[in-house]
């Protein structure tokens, strides 16, 4: 019940320094580790994270280093694998089944984002204390306690 489930965007903020919420995401993860607050990630979020980090890395490597697309892709993929392994070490992966799909579909009337609804289903499945996301729309429609990384830092007194 004391676990925090972090949305995909928070893990992207943590790993990508150009993102606006990077410092808050780093402080949150570091504070949770130091205070033994368990972190969770939905299984589908880990897959999404890997793909999105790989895509972001390709773009950064091509523009910043003038690498060939093939080399940029290979480097970005290595970073995505390493970062995904790091998350798997830091957070417990919350599995899903058909009931999560059912719930995500039923929540469409209140929040029209299937991926977000799967994160909510994972939060409910795990009985997480707080869903942490940078998505203001999800926070506004979330049927479980939800906060931005910055607000979570305040809430947890980290």
Kindly summarize this structure in a few lines:
With 158 residues, the protein is of the alpha/beta class.
Structural class: alpha/beta
Please compute the radius of gyration using only Cα atoms. Answer: 16 Å
Measured by DSSP, the beta-strand proportion falls in 5-15%
Query: Which CATH class applies here?
Result: Alpha Beta
Number of helices: 8
Instruction: Let me know the number of strands.
Output: 5
User: How would you write the strand order of the largest sheet?
Assistant: 3-2-1-4-5
CATH topology: Rossmann fold
How far from one another are the termini?
18 Å
Helix fraction bin? 55-70%
Q: Per CATH, which architecture?
A: 3-Layer(aba) Sandwich
Return the string of H and E elements: EHHEHHEHHEHEH
- Write down the oligomeric state: single chain
- As for the number of domains, it is 1
Give the biggest beta sheet.
5 strands, parallel
CATH homology-level superfamily: 5'-nuclease
What's the rounded overall pLDDT mean? 92
Summarize the topology.
Layout: E1 4-6, H1 8-15, H2 22-34, E2 39-42, H3 43-65, H4 69-90, E3 91-94, H5 98-106, H6 114-126, E4 130-132, H7 136-141, E5 146-147, H8 149-156
Parallel strand pairs: 1-2, 1-4, 2-3, 4-5
Helix pairs in contact: 1-2, 1-3, 2-8, 3-4, 5-6
